[in-house]
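Cont'd.
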Amino acid sequence: MKKQQKSHYRRYGSTASILLFLLPGFGAYTLFMLYPSLLSLYYSLLEWQGGPVSQAPFVGFENFRAIFADPYLKSALSNNVRLLFLNWTIQLPLALMLAYILSRLRRGASFYRFIFYIPVVLPAATLALMWRFVFSGNNYGLLNNLLTRLNLDQLVRPWLSGDGIVQWTTTFPSSWVSVGFYLVIFLAALAGIPDEFYEAASIDGANRLQQLIFITLPNIRSVYIYSMILALQGALGAFIYPLLMTRGGPLHLSETLISYSLYLLWERKIWGYGSAMAALSFLLGIFATVMIWKFGRQRQIEQ
Amino acid sequence: MASTGFIDAIQKETGKKTQIKPSKSRKESQHSWGYRLAEVPIHMGLIFWGLVCVFPLVWILLTSLKSTPELYRDPFGIPEAWKWTNYRDAWVYAKMGVYFVNSILITLLSTVVVLFLSSTFAFVLARFDFKLKGAVWAYVLFGFLIPHTILLVPLAIFTRKLGIYNSLYGLALVYAAVGIPWNTFFLRAFMETIPDELEEAAILDGAGMWGVFWYVIIPLSQPALATMATFHVLASWSEYILALVLTGTTASRTLPVGISLLEGHFTSNEPGVAAGMVITIIPAVVAFAFLQRYVIKGITAGAIKA
Amino acid sequence: MNNKRRISSTNLTRRDMLKLLGVGVGASVLASCTPKATPTPAVLPTDAPPAAVPVSLRYQNHWTKETDAHFKGMEWLYKDFKAKYPDITIENVLNPDSIESDKKILADCAAGDCPDIVHDATPEMWTAGYLLDLAPHMDAAWKGALLENTFYETDGHVWALCGEFSPMPTIWNTRILDAAGVSAIPTTWDEMLAACDKIKASGKLPTSWGVGGSHKFHNLIASQDGGMEALANNQFDAPQIKEAFAQLKKFVDNKWIPDNEIELTWQQSVGMFVAEETAFYLNGAWTLGNEIRSEGAAADLRDNVKFAPFPGLGPNGSTVELKTTTAIGISKAVEKDPARLAAALNFFKFWFSPEGGKQWILLTQSPMGVKVDVNSISGVDPLLVAFLGAKDSAKTVYALPGTQAMLERGWDDCWTALQALMVGKSTDEALAAFVLEMSKYK
């Protein structure tokens, strides 16, 4: 369990100094991020389809009512959920497993860590372009090509256009990239578990598996929860791969909330409604984050 | 500062482990033959994953040397004739003399600024209790959900009002601002793990808030700061959409925007674009290779205190 | 000693940071010393600071890119305009050629900083009040030189002129037709269906839609009685439109388009024609430079293409669409200064003139919305003449109605519906998707 006390009673520093320290970061963030996004939230309350904002009629929650009647909302939201599923059930556990393996390797760990992190460094445009060619349904699509050569013709699929398929092929790249990112975080967390814990456990006769379950996992708990929150927020805000790989996929099948919002904003130029879609994504994110936070806190208290 | 006792204490802390090394107590078991044999398939699995991770880099390199029809005919093969002219074109449009320098300046400047803004913010959130602290924290986390794209039009208007449109400083400031949520998040988590004793030692020596911040917390946070700097550098370097909208002329353009000039809406030059991407990626990968030392040093040293 | 090493490691970090700052400062000093306007390998004055001249106009566009089809035209324009009006400087800003570029111009305008000459103006810019109404400034002489049907206008206010105006005939690869045993280019729809069968049987594909599906879609509508009128009245579920989808469905059912058409981009689609995998497509005169005579095309492709009207489906017979694209306008803000207003208008009058139109055809192969007799220009590419002349044998030559729907969505309006067809939905379902997509405009 953590040894540090989290409650820092005010031993020094005045309220004025605290405010002074808060101000620069708080101010810049509010000015350049919050204020513009609040503006966009405001736009979501208007029926604005171009033209000066002042002339756009205020329609309150009409846009949001329309969102829930939008036939494409369900498919967009389901793609976000798919990404979340991939992130939580495969990406994070995989990152943790790789981190665990790397932490126990005799050598080569630093090298692997560098390599695994590279996709995070590459721009998404590059990766999306590549994955588009990999999954292309043409003769030259790499995956289909490979399958044909391996005489697995029956597995050949329209990866970028098949209903039920394209939703996964456009969410997979985002999940894959971030494995390296969480790997680095988990590696650090794992390295932070003091050796004494393991020594004590092995003296008590615990084998490696028991050590893993009873020492390693509990000690990285809060890092894992933080990562789950990050992954959730990544899943809600994802848009670049559907956008670049399939432009939202056939009939908006592979859209996510934000990519659909961008489509509404920039292609159909329905500014009010498009902003409302983006606003929905925020609200969901806040709600879900708060839920996880509470859940995490509760379990921690129980422990 | 009257005494420097706390500096010694800090140095004791930072001098700790910086590499991923299995601890001594595990080393014995790892020399057993069972362990060595098990390692082989594990390494194979790791190498496989590593190949998948490196593949995009190789692919973009190969693609940049093809011609467009060749790309569509055989996107994953070796180019027949190595079309180095793609790089010449990309170099011309990348205006290496100007855009490259601009990108470097903006990246460096915004990194310094964001580290300052975030560390002051995180310091207070990590080490102090005050009313509305939870609210402020939620306020910051909210920033994670804001995609850059919805900031475009409001920022375009706003930066002009402030007179920082189409300037390196303006763009750097915006980059710093949008990096605050992530940086504050991580720095706060790190700063919470600094032992109270060091803080108390400094206070006993007569340090005020700024003293504690500058002489205790910051030095101890080097690793986290280095990590955050790395993340921020990598993100700012290839950022495109904000750079496009918030700069207007060659003088203030960045590399990714310059590269995008190679594209065409109705004409295609994907290999040319690929060459541009390579020009953008290589410095990033090199910088990462160089900086990851600090990243690891940082994360590991920091995580020890968790 | 241990302690000593650790002291230096701490100090080094702060020194490192200072070093970094120093490097940053040094670099910025250096950067400000280097000449800001790095000359491009062209004659164009890129971002040249005005040297004590009365007027400077800003023009943001992607046509001044070296590899753009319009580059030579822009070169001529700037040079000759400068010669005629030495006091006026056009500050050229090269923008990326992409949707992002539109976003940038929109964002600039929203911030009250429209470029003076607006490239790719849109109807929203007019309704938002960013554009100058050109109508009051057009005297009879100037108006007479322009093609009135290419004006971008709303309620009599002309907010932009047409930078690219071209018929869009059907472009056929005669090599493929010969190999398939198609003796004559189809002129009726039945002939078209028969030809497609033969082409498919010979191992090639009749066509690929890419984004260009809308061209065929609009032609099919125009060929039917009352089709274009339905579009003009935003009657998106009209029977003519349904019929167009029904015919396009045949291309899906008979596999006359590539199997993975649904994921193809415009570039890939038109690339298939260049690679001589498909038999026909439709596009404007700019395609001659971009595709037919491009690097990836066979050297003799230009000798094996024929241009013809789109085969007729209904009583209106064979059709050719006249495409008006690339709206170029003037920012309303220039009105405030009479000198700038005059300068901007002079620029337009110089460019959109008989001489300008002629030079444009000679240098870019891409006509503007200006009256020009192509046959009278010496040295013009015969391919272009044939291309532009193809519409003469069409029974119906039409342009899309200038409704907001068509202005905003004309290239892409039926794409969602076509995708519906490609995933196996029925004509009715495709029509419903079309109506939904256009529901904003009802």
